[in-house]
Amino acid sequence: MVDATTTKAAKEDDDTGASTLSVHLQELREVLTGGIPGATASEHRGELTITVDPVTLTAALQFARDDAATQCELLSDISAVHWPGGVMPVDVEETTGWPTYTEERDEGSIEVNYILRSVAKNHWFRIRVSLPDDDPTVASATGIYSSANFMEREAYDLMGVEFTGHPNLTRIMMPDDWNGHPHRKDYPLGGVEVMYKGETIPPPDERDY
């Protein structure tokens, strides 16, 4: 399937000030911001993101599914990103060669992104909500898209997001009695020993690199 966000128009330089969205996605942006109360739109490198208040999430998803212009039959992915509050050094020199830098935020948050696709209309975009990281709670999307079931369980397991109304919000990857949510950035890197080909690999903080 050709991705409508990767057309020639979508590849134009962000720095020109012109929209990087395809004409189709520009029209879709107007439909979404006009049909979802309080929705705001942003774009980056040809991708369209619609940010909504958490209390309007299910209404936004339902609009995206049912509106004749959007017609998103498929919720193809749910992802989450943790942005801790305070000052946090980011050391990526080993993997990217970039120098260490710091990020600073007044309050921590967890962004949850819903990737929606329309097979009939040949487009995709994301709907995003931002939740406080000390109480990341939002309504489940399972009543609108059944594919949300396992993806919400993964976000709950690894990031601690509570999806109210989910029919079976239990861990899906970590053991049932595991403490904490290991993909959060405030989760300790201590880890556990891992068995590999008969040898024991120590946790990351105990390895001799």
Describe the structure using short key phrases.
disordered N terminus; 30% strand; 4 helices; two-stranded antiparallel ribbon; alpha+beta; 19% helix; 209 residues
Q: Name the average pLDDT.
A: 88
Largest sheet: 5 strands, mixed
Number of helices: 4
Poorly predicted runs: 1-13
Would you count the extended β strands for me? 11
Strand order of the largest sheet: 1-2-7-6-3
Give the helices and strands as they follow along the chain. Answer: HEEHEEHEEEEHEEE
What layout of secondary structure does this protein have?
Elements: H1 23-35, E1 40-44, E2 47-51, H2 57-66, E3 74-83, E4 86-90, H3 93-96, E5 101-105, E6 109-118, E7 123-132, E8 137-139, H4 148-159, E9 162-164, E10 194-196, E11 199-201
Parallel strand pairs: 2-7, 8-9
Antiparallel strand pairs: 1-2, 3-6, 4-5, 6-7, 10-11
